[in-house]
Amino acid sequence: MHWLVLIASGMLEAVWATALGASEKFKKTAPTIVFFIAMIASMAGLAYAMREIPTGTAYAVWVGIGAVLTVAIAMIRGEEKATTARILLLLGIVACVIGLKVVA
User: Fold this and answer.
1) Helix 55-76 with 29-49: angle, nearest 10 deg
2) Which of 19, 70, 98, 104 lies 20 to 30 angstroms, CA to CA, from 77?
């Protein structure tokens, strides 16, 4: 259960990071609201997961999921280039996150 919450929290990290950029320095209301709600939920989920998962592992998985999804969203939106090298590097992060789960 803690791993599922951690994965969802990592996904919410991508939501709040994307919303933060869309808020244009908190000038746009809707993305600003999404940012705060997703950030609070993401942090709460991370804190919950850390009850059973070691801090370093939980944080690395949370950041990895959030970072990969944030870049993927930007690529899908056309805000960042989706080059072969970038995609392979992102897949490397995914492999490392999976590896942390396997050895935890």
Assistant:
1) 150
2) 98
Instruction: Please give the Cα distance from 19 to 38 (Å, whole number).
Output: 9
Q: Which domain holds residue 57?
A: 2-103
The CA–CA distances, whole Å, from 32 to 9, 39, 47, 68 equal 18, 10, 23, 22
- Kindly write down the DSSP assignment for every residue of 31-95, as one continuous string: HHHHHHHHHHHHHHHHHHHTTTS-HHHHHHHHHHHHHHHHHHHHHHTTSS---HHHHHHHHHHHH
How many domains does the chain contain in total? 1
Q: How far apart are CA 9 and CA 65, in angstroms?
A: 9
Q: Is 104 helix (H, G, I), strand (E, B) or coil?
A: coil
Sites in the chain below the pLDDT cut of 50: none
